[in-house]
């Protein structure tokens, strides 16, 4: 436990390609989680009595499976990851119980007490993927930190230069302990 009494988190990136992700709920917040899972090439299964027009469109296009009905515990079977994104506390709790019983990680949107995993605010700028989490405690602040990180990430020119430096270091056998200092000096020089 941390000083604040919350469990410490183990940061992790998941390979969801060709793995089933269950999303319970199909409103605007669930739609964002669905899009992220689809970007990861997951097999997305959605369970919700109603869905946004975009979720309906994705289902009609075959990008995901939408079951237009209420959640049942067996929906969790076969899922590698479950995302509960409903506004109904009782449904969130049932999804959490089903996921926990099957030892499947659960992202419970705006419901940290039921979650066993948290999705973070994500910055994607090739080759970087950066995720920021507040363990569900301060989502708005997490978003602000993400926006700040986006502003300070190096541009394409720096990334390409770093790649060339790495190739040079590998070719010349530069010890790993010397590389960081060289990179900082070279990038500082380029920033002038």
Structure explained in plain terms:
The chain is α/β, with parallel strands linked by helices and 192 residues long. The chain contains 6 helices and 7 strands; from the N terminus they run βαβαββαβββααα. It has a 5-stranded parallel beta sheet with strand order 3-2-1-4-5, with helices on both faces. A two-stranded antiparallel sheet has the order 6-7. α5 runs antiparallel to α6. The longest helix has 17 residues, at 156-172. It starts with 19 loop residues before the first strand and ends with a helix. Residues 1-5 have low confidence and may be disordered.
The description of the largest β-sheet is: 5 strands, parallel
Low-confidence stretches: 1-5
Tell me how many strands there are: 7
Taking the alpha carbons of the first and last residues, their distance comes to: 45 Å
Give the percentage of residues in beta strands: 15-25%
Helical content (DSSP H or I, runs of 4+): 40-55%
Query: Radius of gyration from the CA trace?
Result: 21 Å
Count of runs of 4 or more consecutive helical residues = 6
Mean pLDDT: 90
The succession of helices and strands, N to C, reads EHEHEEHEEEHHH
Tell me the strand order in the biggest sheet.
3-2-1-4-5
Question: Structural class given helices, strands, pairing?
Answer: alpha/beta
Globally, the shape reads elongated
